[in-house]
Amino acid sequence: MAENKLPREAQTRETQVRTRSWKRPETLPVPNPEPGFKFHWVRISTRGEMDATNVTSKFREGWEPVKASDHPEIHVFHAENDRFKDNIVIGGLMLCKSPEEFVEERNAYFRQQADAQMNSVDNNLMRENDPRMPLFTERKTRVSFGSSS
User: Is residue 129 situated within a structural domain?
Assistant: First the structure.
């Protein structure tokens, strides 16, 4: 009785690939990266009401709407918003992009604002220092799980 085995050279690992398992889809898809750009989802509406203030604010910050034709990997149902029908809109959020330099400048600005606020708080606290109530300026946090015994 002859066996019907493939010769060793004909056997490949590709035929032994496992089937993909199902995984829950992301609520907001991630577009394929574009060199030199960062992506951000901008709120254009809340509960069906347009949020023109937020949209115009983000546009002035340098965010530009992304055209659906530029990212065909993101499938969009276009019945949600007629005003931005050529763009990628999901759940009242529109995908926008901005040059990386603008994003870094914006992040540096807000970092500087946060540092200035912390310095102001520190200076105010140090001014009212009472020796009976020492102040501690250590700003380290630690997260632990489970019981602490």
Answer: no
DSSP 47-64: TTEE-HHHHHHHHHHT-E
Kindly state the tokens that stand for 77. Answer: 């149902």
pTM of the model: 0.58
What 3-state class would DSSP assign to 113? helix
In the DSSP assignment, the letter for residue 110 is H
- For residue 126 the two structure tokens come to 């140090």
Report the domain count for the chain.
Answer: 1
Q: Which of 87, 83, 92 is nearest to 74 (CA)?
A: 87
The answer to whether 43 touches 54, Cβ cutoff 8 Å, is yes
- Asked if residue 6 belongs to a domain, the reply is no
Q: Is residue 139 included in any domain, yes or no?
A: no
* Dihedral angle of Cα 49, 53, 57, 59, to the nearest 10 degrees: 50
Lowest mean pLDDT among 49-58, 108-117, 137-146: 137-146
